[in-house]
Design a protein that fits this description.
This is Putative monoheme cytochrome c sulfur oxidizing protein(SoxX) (Modular protein). Keywords: Heme, Iron, Metal-binding, Signal. It holds the Pfam family Cytochrom_C. GO terms for molecular function: electron transfer activity; heme binding; metal ion binding. The chain is mainly alpha-helical and about 210 residues long. It folds into two domains: about 45 residues, no CATH class; about 160 residues, Cytochrome Bc1 Complex, Chain D, domain 2 (Orthogonal Bundle), CATH 1.10.760.10. The protein is built from eight helices and four strands, in the order αααββααββααα. The chain has a two-stranded antiparallel sheet. A two-stranded antiparallel sheet has the order 3-4. A hairpin with a 5-residue loop joins strand 3 and strand 4. Helix 4 crosses helix 8 and helix 7 crosses helix 8. The protein binds heme C.
Length: about 210
């Protein structure tokens, strides 16, 4: 009982939730299922909710050509799709999708954020979220002027799989669904972006001159 009282006190002090089953020890066996059900209701989100933005399982087949600055480029749009730059910015700002702004500063987007602090993004599953535009990390190089440094085909290659250019990079491959190790079972076989999303992001990157 003393231990439970201390746990309740600690919970009050530090503001964490303690499972219902720890608060009142079930007195009779018949109470146990009810207590279990209660603690389940408070449990953290299940693992199956990890991939909840409609992540695609298909990746396009593409032809790799020789780039100008980089060794490799994908010169043809994936699946022949036409990109939409505004949507591309949304995918880039989305915390669970591109999350590019976590690593890359983009002056143009910082300037936009002064007027429009966040962007509404509707993920592939139809769920709409509001994502901040004004918080940028500096783990990667700023993307200012990236369209002057690389061809469209090189930018596409970098979004699809940056390890083809920078083998040790921490930047994720956004259109790849195999060859990874220790992927969470719920996310196995999924890519982050589908072909259309890659084209949308490439369309936005092309505006960075
Ligand atoms: C976890 C951090 C991280 C994330 C997230 C990330 N990148 Fe990168 N990116 C990097 C790093 C680091 C480099 C530099 C290459 C290297 O590792 O040597 C880079 C390089 C690049 C380059 C080449 C820049 C140059 O001037 O050479 C482009 C273009 C790029 N990233 C685009 C993106 C886009 C678009 C997204 C989101 C869809 C993104 N990155 C997400 C870390 C990240």
């Amino acid at each position: 009982m003393v231990r439970i009282a201390m746990a309740v006190l600690a919970a009050a002090m530090f503001g964490f939730a303690i499972p219902a089953s720890a608060q009142t020890a079930p007195t009779a066996a018949k109470d146990a299922p009810a207590a279990a059900a209660k603690s389940e209701a408070k449990a953290p989100p299940k693992a199956k909710d990890r991939c909840q933005d409609g992540e695609p399982s298909e990746v396009a087949t593409y032809k790799i050509s020789k780039g100008e600055t980089l060794e490799k480029a994908i010169n043809e749009p994936l699946d022949g799709k036409t990109g939409d730059a505004d949507k591309g910015l949304g995918w880039m700002a989305h915390r669970r999708l591109g999350n590019c702004l976590a690593c890359h500063k983009i002056s143009k987007v910082l300037a936009m954020a002064e007027k429009t602090p966040s962007i509404k993004v509707t993920a592939l599953n139809g769920k709409t979220s509001s994502m901040p535009l004004g918080i940028h990390g500096e783990i990667g190089p700023p993307l200012d002027g990236v369209a002057n440094r690389y061809t469209e085909g090189e930018l596409r290659m970098l979004v699809v799989d940056p390890k083809t250019a920078f083998p040790d990079t921490i930047m994720p491959a956004f259109h790849k669904n195999s060859g990874f190790t220790r992927v969470h079972p719920d996310c196995q076989g999924l890519a982050i972006f589908n072909a259309q999303q890659v084209e949308d992001v490439v369309a936005f990157l092309k505006t960075l001159k």
